[in-house]
UniProtKB/TrEMBL annotation:
Belongs to the class-I pyridoxal-phosphate-dependent aminotransferase family. LL-diaminopimelate aminotransferase subfamily. Residues 35-390 form the Aminotransferase class I/classII large domain. InterPro entries: Aminotransferase_I/II_large, DapL/ALD1, PyrdxlP-dep_Trfase, PyrdxlP-dep_Trfase_major, PyrdxlP-dep_Trfase_small. GO terms for biological process: lysine biosynthetic process via diaminopimelate, diaminopimelate-aminotransferase pathway. It comes from the Bacteria. PANTHER family: AMINOTRANSFERASE (PTHR43144). The gene is dapL. The lineage of its organism: Bacteria, Bacillati, Bacillota, Clostridia, Eubacteriales. Pyridoxal 5'-phosphate binds at Y72, A107, K108, Y131, N176, Y207, S235, L236, S237, R246, N281. Its cofactor is pyridoxal 5'-phosphate. It catalyses: (2S,6S)-2,6-diaminopimelate + 2-oxoglutarate = (S)-2,3,4,5-tetrahydrodipicolinate + L-glutamate + H2O + H(+). SUPFAM superfamilies: PLP-dependent transferases. This is LL-diaminopimelate aminotransferase. Pfam families: Aminotran_1_2.
Amino acid sequence: MAKFNENFLDLKESYLFSEVAKRVAAFHQKCPDRTVIRLGIGDVTLPLGKTVVEAIHTAADEMGRAESFRGYGPEQGYDFLREAIQAHYSTFGVSLDTDEIFVSDGAKSDTGNITDLFSKENTVMIPDPVYPVYVDTNTMNGRNIVFINGTAENDFLPMPDRSVHADIIYICSPNNPTGACYNRTQLREWVDYALENDAVILFDSAYECFISDSDLPHSIYEIDGAEKCAVEFCSLSKTAGFTGTRCGYTVVPKAIRSVTSDGREMSLNRMWNRRQCTKFNGVPYIVQRAAAAVFSEEGMKEARKMIAHYMENARIIADTMKQTGISFTGGINSPYIWFECPFGMNSWEFFDFMLERAGVVGTPGAGFGENGTHWFRLTAFNSKENTVEAMRRFTELLNTDPS
Ligand code: MLT
């Protein structure tokens, strides 16, 4: 009989957002007349921008004509998109070669798929709380994980502990779920730590477009030396409403190298290229044209407008937390608001309580790690009207007797 990967037995029974969806579906069945407001999964609600939609139409027409039809594209992405991404990076003062940029179907896949490039023996350092994909994918591979604690005391921005060694370090900034964002000095420390340990940082910058403080870095490559130790993942899902359209990009610098015990040099960039050519046939041409349109002047204007809309919702949620005296982080450089559960409840208790009593869905902090046991995440991705109504219900809920 085929032996299955027993590491799967170490995973939680179901993926966080599937469990949330299951509980919401059960509630719907029980109370079909109740209106539920979803501030749970970070899924966008605004439609694609006009420029993006036009690019999709044009590309679809091209695909329908023999002279402009395209079959398999380059696994790494078309040059027109890699060049647009390169130009986007130059706005942060980061200079990349186009062959360091790999177009993909999103940061979720790539932050998991990158584990193919690393030996099972590596120790992986993962913040707690954090986006569950990092833990789940490394658990599937049976790697040793050390957690670093994000707590209210360190503003959910854990810093390196020199007494602990790691080979691979995941950092998500602006952070999902806490919304906390590392500044330059803090990222400098992480890059120094990685260089001292010959480690690789896997930097998830999926929310970089939500950064509003002008002195915060958008890319880890704004820190000198990061090009020797950091891979960066980004996505258009939240930037331009691509959660259903699927397009992201990963930067694998050519300067990240390692030498085997018998003296053979290895390049992470070449390995990722090799991996992608074997396992991935690239993002559809139509989607890549849509993505390139995001980086046009008009496309970026539309994206900024969407982000401003969501950040207004974030402000409404953050104001409610302030008015009700609840401790929270996020909501300024991030579409997530992370707050301490009221009534001393744990996060799944509060999830059920808020769903049953107020018809509002959020995401329990426990799904992002142990340190989230008593914390909860709300997203700013719904409409303004629904966000205002959700906060009205939330405030009312806090004034009820929980028993
Ligand atoms: C989230 O809600 O954390 C995100 O939507 C998950 C994702 O981007 O995959």
